[in-house]
Amino acid sequence: MRESPAGGFRWAGVNCGGIGLRRLLFVPLILGFLVYAQGADWLTDGGNPQRTAWQRDEKIMTAGSVKGMKLLWKIHLDNKPHVMTSLFPPLIVGAVSTPTGVKQIAIEAGASDNIYAIDVERGELLWKKHFIPVVDAATFGRGGNDDINCPGGITATPVVSPTDISGKYTAYVVSWDGMLHQLNVATGEDVSPPSPFIPPNAKAYALNLWNNVLYTHTGNRCGGIPDIAYSYDLGTRKVGAWGPSGGGMWGRTGPAISADGTMFTGTGDGRFDPETGAYGSAIVGLKQNPDTKALELADYYGPTNAEWLYKRDLDLAVTPTIFDYKGRELMVTGGKECRLYLLDVQSIGGDDHRTPLYRSPLICNEDVNFASAGIWGSLASWQDPKGVQWVLSPIWGPTYPGFKFPIEHGAIKYGAVAAFRVEESEGKWQLTPVWISRDMNRAEPPVIANGVVFAYGSGEDTDQAAREGGLTNTPETRIPGSTHAVMYALDAYTGKELWSSGDQITSWGHFTGLSLANGRVYFGTYDSTLYCFGIKK
Predict the structure, then answer these.
(1) Are strands 415-425 and 389-396 parallel, antiparallel or unpaired?
(2) Alpha-carbon distance values, 217 to 268, 313, 486, 491 (Å)
(3) Which of 12, 85, 265, 374 has the most Cβ atoms closer than 10 angstroms to its Cβ?
(4) For residue 281, which of 300, 257, 256 has the smallest C-alpha distance?
């Protein structure tokens, strides 16, 4: 860009000085350039604090264009997997001011206490940060790092936030020792000293950020630490905590946040007995006290069969998805039993805390399998241009014979993505089934943009018990049985397959996920390879 003789400037061979048609035509041109330069972001797991997994700002991916998707690049990172855990969903920052210019950067967390920054235009590493414990390692040691449920290392997807300076962003990361790190996305440098957040060796899940407060929760009692939900006030550095007294909170993408700042999450195996302070096998809403910064119980919902769910290990520990529809803030969640629950955020269980707006029939898991069937991870939601509200759910295992979808794409053996419409008539709500995808080898949480659903089968061996009896949940049995992941692009209205990665992904994924922004979809695998599929400009 340089000045023109008329006192304007010249860009791409166009004289923009003076007044006239050329200048008027140039205005939308440069505005379009600036919009493209800014691009879309994916700053948190699930795309936003509500965990809709809906990329509203995508301009490139469409049902027509995805048919031409290619593997743009892949990069192998020097992250050593911890048991079966390796890479987490990358966070995409559309326009970062760096010492060498504005770049689109992916922030990738690796289980071995590593954070990587990758230039997504080139598929090249910009910087790496390895965390060295800032507390005495003897206080947490390496306990549990040979356990699938408690692998040690980073276990929570970070979160990124813009600062008050345009082009400058901060990444918030929790390392294995429980310390909160704040990193400059452009350089990897600390922007604030590390601060205690959660206990060392606790297994945290994806961080969420709302109104300058970080939220997460822990599961699996790793390190012998009770399962707790945590908040961290960035202004005061005060930590709030609340525990369900049984029942780990292990929704894949962490808690979802409502409009008033309440964090919602499902709890795992445990007694549901509110009179004694036990909230296992339930959904809880927690809110920060604005004065004390403590985390307090705001609401809860317990299914009427909560005791049976507890006895059969059918946790509700799935990250909910929250959305606005017909003037109400609604939430959908599920669990291993393989039912979906539609809840009103203002009162998720009604006056008795046991009554949802809608509870679906059994969708899958006829055999009551606690390990390789049901709904796992998280859900997704989006609203189409006609105002129809959709909910997407991954399922594992075959569908229940008595549950039918109007549109099906073959028999389901290992898993699929199912689509539902949210509907209301005369005050009665329901989730109406619309379509179910093709079979996927352990279907995982999808993401969506412009009428296209991106989903994948992880290829992971999820069996945890032998049919003849006895647990088999060990890396020695599950790693050899895992194959490779396959990513799919589906028509969001019909579930029809538009594109597939085929055999291009050569490894599998455990507790990872998809990220989507600016014509690219990202996925990290067990062998610490980050894949980028997209549409070539």
Answers:
(1) antiparallel
(2) 12, 20, 29, 34
(3) 265
(4) 300
Q: What percent of the chain has pLDDT over 70?
A: 90
d(CA 346, CA 329) in angstroms, rounded, equals 7
Q: Which residue has the higher pLDDT, 77 or 466?
A: 77
- HSE (CB half, 13 Å, CA atoms) of 276? 8
Helices within 39-145 (DSSP H only): none
- Tell me what the mean pLDDT of segment 447-473 comes to: 86
Decide: 249 and 205 in contact? Cβ < 8 Å: yes
Q: Which two tokens stand for residue 23?
A: 């200048």
Tokens of 342: 């539609």
Helix (H, G, I), strand (E, B) or coil at 479: helix
Using an 8 Å Cβ cutoff, are 457 and 485 in contact?
yes
Could you give phi then psi for residue 481, rounded to 5 degrees? -85, -5
Burial of 105 (0-12, 13-18, 19+ CB in 10 A): buried
- Please list, residue by residue across 423-442, b when 16 or more beta carbons sit within 10 angstroms of its beta carbon and e when fewer do: bbeeeebbbebbbbbbbbbb
Query: Token digits for 398?
Result: 């075959």
Question: Is-contact 181 170, C-beta < 8 A?
Answer: no
The SS3 call for residue 259 is coil
What's the residue count for the chain?
537
DSSP tag of 214: E
SS3 content of the chain, % helix, strand, coil (to 5): 10, 40, 55
Write out the two tokens for 339: 């039912």
CB atoms within 10 A of CB 125: 15
Predicted TM-score (pTM) of the model is: 0.92
| Furthest C-alpha separation in the chain | 85
Note whether 210 and 198 are within 8 A (CB).
no
The pLDDT of residue 505 is 98
Q: Is 175 within 8 Å of 230 (Cβ atoms)?
A: no
Long-range contacts at 471-474 (CB < 8 A, ≥ 24 apart): 473/148, 473/149, 473/371, 474/148
> Using 50, 70 and 90 to split pLDDT, how confident is the model at 22?
very low
Confidence band, pLDDT 50/70/90 cuts, at residue 6? very low
Ramachandran angles phi, psi of 440, nearest 5°: -135, 140
Q: How far is CA 376 from the centre of its chain?
A: 12
Block residue for tokens 């996305």: 185
Query: pLDDT digits over 297-348, tens only?
Result: 999 999 999 999 999 999 998 999 999 999 999 999 999 999 999 999 999 9
- Residue whose token pair is 């609604």: 330
